[in-house]
From TrEMBL:
Keyword annotations of the record: Repeat
One Pfam family, short name: FERM_M
Protein's UniProt keywords contain rRNA-binding: no
Residue ranges occupied by any FERM domain in the UniProt entry: 202-493
Name this protein carries in UniProt: FERM and PDZ domain containing 2
Keyword Transcription regulation carried by entry: no
Domain PDZ: 572-658
Domain KIND: 5-204
Superkingdom of this protein's organism: Eukaryota
Length: 696
């Protein structure tokens, strides 16, 4: 493709318009470059177009004469079309018209005629002022530059050079290799007294998800949180709480914010000032619903997992690997255009892992990738990234090698810790296959011992499964990792459910039920066996089909207002109560009318004269959690266990109808009786399967 590509080629490759921040950065870079050119007599051009703006892989800009085949009339200032001879000053103003029209075209690229340009009023006003037909009313080049500089600083946008490099097509982890080294230095205000001595100065290399290395200058006693904060501030990452710093000791281990780097670094780093210790900025918490992530965060997810797959840290079947390679090509090149770039516009080894490449002949892989890339035509970058993440079989799993205590010679065993629990994998011929699942709701305790033991005790049977780690600190680390993942899963589940229940939109509630039913099928090994790739294979699809049917029918009904009643408004309350030795707290009931799945634990009635009755704030409704333990998807017996182990003071989070409303009124069951039954099941408890909170 050469050293430079035109702006037209970039837009054709990505198949979508430039975003607001991209337009601002590009406008700043071009205005600055054109102002420099205008100072040199005779070098100023009067017409620019998307085909004459050149972008370099190193982040620089250049301009060329407009091609004869290119329609430049739309980008030419009216006075130039009239044949007026410009002065140097006038030439600079005439090119402003071209620049404004060019960037407006970039923001409007491939948008339907009835869809407005997706940019702010401020940016659109600036571009339109550059495109005024009358030169005297047109914004001058210097004003454009000053406006862009002010916006750039106030919005903390990345440098124009960095953005231009990102506009280049191809793998981002290759483009960043040409970027200059970024050096960050720990502020003197957080250095210790000894840290101000050159003898204690040290260097860290932090590898980002896109492969970029950032050099951090710190001291021996620097803590992980200080380095993490510097990286986050530099990256301008909004949802930084999903990430952490990790180091490699055969496997990735996360560094706590309060831990000194010297505690995990090799001895050579502590003793030799010139030694560099490598850390990795990686995902620490994986969300189940990827579409909820901020676009910037989702891109970081994509970058890390794309490299993990390429470097065989994640595994999948050959067909899945090729499909993911086609999605990565769509993300990084846009629509497949072999006529423009040739059939060898990419390197297969940059999209397919070595383990897969060794199984197939190169011509076959090239042909398949080309076909799969072409199948993704018209898919936007955001869509292809999202699809890539959704198709990863081992998404969100942290792997650590162990051996069984009683059968140490049975072969290699790998533990996978994720937001839903612990998965045991058997490794044969380099491939991981699921052998056992320990999901949080089926697990009683997880512990470690000084003898390198990592112990999982099952709920109900109380059976213990013991695994031996390489070091005792690894067993302890796995316990802490499980604790963090379990807490994260509970918080995310409660947050998503609370958000849905406080809404008066029943369609949204049904959609959440559908999503939770999918989760239920993937977290119970007794209900859903798994194949070798770790993907769930449900034995039946009745619940999914039911939830899909519910949502469709509710949405259809919403088009025609019901004759009687409206959905009750709900509120989520958090209440702390002390148990009464005689009366307990409340009476609750779970709903198990849809197959063998529960839709939740419900409060059916209040014990008269008890603490809840005296408090007066609790009404019959859905019990979300008890003492920070989520009750989503748990059975009656599991809920009873949680309550039996609860202390004297209990914190309840309840979703309940506002005021005195307790049920959802329907249209007298006319037209769709079965739908009313389903909605009633979702929103109100039945009078069966009562479970009392145990008394002391």
């Amino acid at each position: 493709m050469g050293t430079f590509v035109t702006l037209t080629e970039v837009l054709e490759a990505r198949g979508s318009p430039l975003e607001e921040d991209e337009v601002w950065c590009l406008l700043l870079a071009t205005a600055d470059a054109l102002l420099d050119i205008s100072k040199k007599p005779g070098n100023m051009c009067t017409v620019l177009s998307p085909g004459s703006v050149l972008l370099s892989a190193n982040g620089s800009l250049a301009f060329k004469s407009c091609a004869q085949s290119e329609d430049v009339a739309s980008y030419t200032a009216p006075e130039v079309q009239q044949g007026l001879t410009p002065s140097t000053r006038a030439a600079a103003e005439k090119v402003v018209y071209s620049l404004g029209m060019t960037l407006y075209w970039c923001a409007d690229y491939h948008l339907p005629q009835n869809q407005p340009v997706q940019i702010s009023t401020e940016l659109e006003g600036l571009l339109l002022s550059m495109c005024e037909d009358m030169a005297v009313r047109r914004t001058d080049l210097l004003t454009v530059l000053e406006t862009c500089e002010f916006h750039h600083k106030s919005s903390m946008l990345p440098s124009p050079e960095r953005l231009i490099r990102q506009l280049e097509i191809g793998p981002e982890f290759l483009r960043v290799l040409e970027e200059p080294l970024v050096i960050l230095e720990l502020p003197g205000s957080i250095l210790t007294k000894k840290g101000k001595s050159p003898a204690t100065h040290r260097e860290l290399s932090v590898v980002m998800p896109n492969g970029q290395s950032i050099l951090v200058k710190c001291e021996v006693k620097t803590r992980g949180g200080d380095v993490f904060d510097m990286i986050v501030a530099h990256s301008n990452l909004v949802e930084h709480f999903y990430f952490g710093l990790a180091y490699i000791d055969n496997e990735f281990f996360f560094v706590d914010n309060d831990t000194k780097i010297s505690k995990v670094a090799p001895d050579s780093w502590k003793k030799v000032p010139t030694t560099t210790f490598v850390l990795f900025f990686r995902i620490k918490f994986f969300v189940n619903n990827i579409s909820l992530l901020h676009k910037q965060t989702r891109h970081q997810y994509y970058l890390q997992l794309r490299r993990d797959l390429l470097e065989d840290r994640l595994s999948c079947h050959e067909a899945t690997a090729l499909y993911l390679g086609g999605l990565a090509l769509q993300t990084e090149y846009g629509d497949c255009m072999p006529k423009v770039y040739g059939r060898n516009y990419y390197r297969p080894d940059q999209y397919i892992s070595k383990s897969v490449m060794e199984k197939r002949a190169l011509p076959y892989i090239q042909a398949e990738l080309l076909r799969l890339h072409a199948n993704n035509a018209q898919m936007l970058t955001d869509e292809s990234e999202l699809e890539f993440l959704k198709q990863l079989p081992e998404y969100g799993v942290f792997f650590h090698r162990v051996i069984r205590e009683k059968r140490p010679l049975d072969g290699e065993i790998v533990l996978g810790v994720c937001a839903k629990g612990v998965i045991v994998y058997e490794v044969k011929d380099g491939c991981r296959s699921t052998a056992q699942n320990f999901f949080w709701r089926e697990t009683s305790t997880i512990s470690s011992s000084q003898k390198r033991k990592f112990i999982i005790e099952c709920r109900g049977s109380r059976k213990k499964y013991i695994f031996i780690t390489e070091k005792s600190r690894i067993a302890k680390y796995l316990c802490n990792l499980c604790s963090a993942q379990h807490k994260f899963n509970n918080e995310m589940s409660s947050r998503q459910l609370s958000h849905s229940l406080v809404s008066d939109n029943i369609v949204q509630y049904a959609a959440v039920c559908r999503a939770q039913s999918s989760q239920l099928k993937s977290i119970s090994c007794s209900e859903t066996p798994q194949d070798d790739s770790g993907l769930t294979t449900p034995q039946e699809e009745s619940l999914t089909k039911l939830c899909d049917d519910v949502t469709a029918r509710i949405e259809a009904r919403m088009e025609t207002p019901p004759k009687l009643g409206t959905p009750s408004e709900r509120e989520v309350v958090c209440i702390s109560l002390k148990k009464d030795p005689k009366l307990g707290l409340i009476v609750i009931v779970g709903e198990d009318a849809i197959g063998r799945y529960d839709l939740g634990i419900f409060i059916a009635s209040i014990v008269p004269g008890g603490p809840a009755d005296k408090d007066g704030r609790i009404r019959p409704g859905r019990l979300i959690s008890l003492n920070h333990v989520s009750l989503e998807g748990v059975t009656f017996s599991e809920a009873a266990e949680v309550m039996e182990g609860s202390p004297e003071e209990v914190e309840l989070i309840v979703s309940q109808p506002k005021g005195s409303q307790t049920t959802l009124m329907t249209d007298g069951r006319s037209g769709d009786d079965s739908l009313d039954e389903i909605v009633s099941v979702m929103m109100t408890p039945k009078a069966s399967n009562r479970l009392h909170v145990p008394r002391d």
